């Protein structure tokens, strides 16, 4: 069974179909890059700005563990009456920036069984010619009866308002994104010998302090550089979150001993894109955004598996940071 319908909105048309008796598919276009639309679905600080349903609701609890096997927790509050609603779920598939599959479980079940949502993110050309994103969400209930219960509420109206709100959030992100300038060049790097401390991005601040404390005996040695290291596939794929693997390290030239408490390792030799950013550390996130979201898609280059890393040079003030992405 397939039925079609549409709901007008300020940004585009929300298309609603039923591919099978127990499935609903919603399609919506957004005039924003796919990376931003992905971020808006996987970063709690953005989710809570738009996933609110009908007007008059707020989202005091929004937790999202952005990884396959991770979980999420949302709680909403009706501001006028104080009524509340909660939902939890498990992420079955997490494929930045293409596909997200998760179930949903309401604290007070209002339909029988389970619902699994598959969200697909695709590049598309908007009517005005800009590069936008086609978002397709397929919801599958255990039965046609369960879907009928869901449709007996104001769910569709709430989805329409929710996606209109998402369009506004994305427009603000696109319009307000004043990213710092960078210069990019392609370089061949030899193997980089490092001494590292492994952890997660959520512990970056304390981990950095611990690493630099352990590395203090060699920091003044010629050629020693301070660095931070992430997995290239996380950086390029938008999967960077508080649980992402994160190394703080020092790059060690030959002849410099590995400080006690740190693990000796290496960043592989190869072809890298090197972006140079001049400015304070508070601008590093914006520098990476310009590097990955703007330079990379137009460069014709592809990121290789390996380490993406930052090297902090002592040329400041202002500080100078080099950002590296391994290339195929």
The CATH fourth-level homologous superfamily of the largest domain:
START domain
The main pleated sheet reads as: 9 strands, antiparallel
Number of DSSP strand runs: 17
Structural shape = elongated
Enter the CATH topology name of the largest domain.
Answer: Alpha-D-Glucose-1,6-Bisphosphate, Chain A, domain 4
Q: Helix segment count?
A: 7
How confident overall, as mean pLDDT?
Answer: 87
Give the C-alpha Rg.
23 Å
Query: What structural class do the secondary elements suggest?
Result: alpha+beta
Helix content: 10-25%
Runs with pLDDT <50, length 5+?
1-12
Query: How many angstroms does the end-to-end distance come to?
Result: 45 Å
Verbal overview:
By secondary structure, this protein is of the alpha+beta class. It has two domains: 4-176, START domain (Alpha-D-Glucose-1,6-Bisphosphate, Chain A, domain 4), CATH 3.30.530; 183-326, Alpha-Beta Barrel (Multidrug-efflux Transporter 1 Regulator Bmrr, Chain A). Helix content is 24%, strand content 41%. The protein has seven helices and 17 strands. The longest helix is centred in the middle third of the chain and has 22 residues, at 155-176. It is elongated. It starts with a strand and ends with a strand. 26% of the residues are buried.
């Amino acid at each position: 069974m397939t039925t079609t319908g549409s709901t007008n909105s300020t940004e585009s048309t929300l298309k609603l179909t039923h591919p099978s008796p127990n499935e609903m598919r919603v399609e919506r276009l957004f005039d924003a890059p796919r990376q931003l639309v992905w971020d808006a679905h996987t970063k709690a600080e953005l989710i809570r700005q738009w996933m609110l349903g009908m007007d008059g609701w707020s989202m005091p609890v929004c937790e999202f563990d952005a990884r396959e096997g991770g979980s999420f927790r949302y709680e909403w509050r009706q501001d006028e009456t104080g009524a509340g609603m909660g939902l939890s779920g498990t992420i079955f598939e997490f494929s930045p920036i293409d596909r997200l599959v998760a179930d949903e479980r309401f604290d007070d079940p209002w339909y029988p069984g389970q619902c699994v949502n598959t969200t697909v993110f695709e590049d598309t050309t908007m009517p005005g010619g800009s590069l936008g994103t086609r978002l397709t969400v397929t919801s599958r209930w255990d039965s046609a009866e369960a879907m009928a219960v869901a449709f007996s509420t104001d769910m569709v109206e709430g989805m329409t308002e929710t996606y209109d709100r998402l369009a506004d959030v994305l427009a603000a992100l696109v319009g307000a994104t004043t990213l710092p300038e960078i210069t990019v060049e392609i370089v061949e790097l030899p193997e980089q010998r490092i001494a590292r401390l492994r952890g997660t991005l959520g512990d970056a601040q304390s981990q950095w302090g611990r690493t630099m404390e352990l590395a203090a005996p060699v920091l003044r040695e010629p050629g020693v550089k301070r660095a931070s290291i992430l997995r290239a596939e996380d950086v390029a794929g938008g999967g960077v979150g508080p649980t992402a693997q994160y190394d703080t390290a020092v790059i060690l030239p030959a002849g410099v001993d590995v400080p006690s408490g740190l693990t000796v390792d290496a960043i592989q030799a190869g072809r890298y894109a090197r972006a140079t950013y001049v400015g304070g550390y508070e601008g590093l996130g914006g520098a990476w955004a310009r590097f990955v979201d703007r330079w990379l898609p137009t460069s014709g280059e592809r990121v290789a598996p390996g380490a993406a890393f930052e090297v902090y040079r002592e040329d400041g003030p202002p500080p100078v940071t080099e950002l590296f992405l391994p290339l195929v």
